[in-house]
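User: Please predict the structure of the protein below. I'd like the answer in structure-token form so I can feed it into my own downstream comparison script.

Assistant: Understood. Taking the following sequence of 149 residues as input:
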Amino acid sequence: MNRSSSLIQRGLIGGLWGTLAMSLLMGAATASGVSPLPRPVPAALAGTLLGAVAKPILMLTALLLHFGIGGAGGALLAAWRERITYWNALGLALALWLIMQLAVFPLLGWGVFGAAVTPKLAVATLVPHLAYGGVLGWYGRRLPEAVPA
């Protein structure tokens, strides 16, 4: 494995760690009743894409979507930038959050920035995305710099 593919692999791992942090934060908010989301976004998206399926298939698909997107984000950032920093990881997190607000929420029927449900959805999803970016940036600081090809 060359140095570049090793960095991409490590970016993937950083993205998975960031997604885990995000998931734990979302789970705590849901369990405590603080979350204004009608349903966890990955589960709602999986349900929209798959339709009526057994709950275990729905949850497995939701987890695969969520961790797949988060891991791919970290890998793409590692491939795109010479170094993963807090700033570019937070930039990625904000870009993913905006995609959710402008594409995923309307697909779910929640409206742009969750306006069809409550404007609180925008903030409730921004905080976990910032946690994702923070963990990815922290992990990325531990990666060696890429060597030009």
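That's the full token string. The two ends are 14 Å apart (CA to CA).
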